[in-house]
Amino acid sequence: MLVPLDRRSTYDDSRQFAEIVAGAIARAHPKLATTEWSKARRRGVLIDSNQNGEGKTIASAYSVRPKPNAPVSTPLRWDEVGDQLNPAIYTMPVVLDRVRMHGDLHAPMLKTRQSLAKALRSLA
Hints:
By secondary structure, this protein is mainly alpha-helical. The protein has 2 domains: 1-57 and 113-124, Alpha-Beta Plaits (2-Layer Sandwich), CATH 3.30.70; 62-105, no CATH class. The chain has 3 helices and 2 strands. The chain has helices spanning 11-28, 92-102, 117-123; strands at residues 33-34, 45-46. It has a two-stranded parallel sheet. Helix 1 packs across helix 3. The model has no long low-confidence stretch (mean pLDDT 89).
């Protein structure tokens, strides 16, 4: 998940916020999500708050993934996210059709900026 931030929010702010949110999700849904690094003890999806740091890289929106059939990293609407979600179906032709039909779902990320300061103060 990407969250657009203002320039005042630091890498430390984003990491602290991500750790708090990841922990809360893992505690609320222990069979669905985890922050456990050990693969032997991990259950569910790893929420990796370590990706919130200077120099970390992610797959950008609309980038082709190095997997069979070349799936594309694509933004989704919240109503599309669920237990039956299959990321492998989002190939280049499918994603191009989606953009024609729904527009660029990633575009608001380029315009929105929000501060983590208030959220971090309320969580402290």
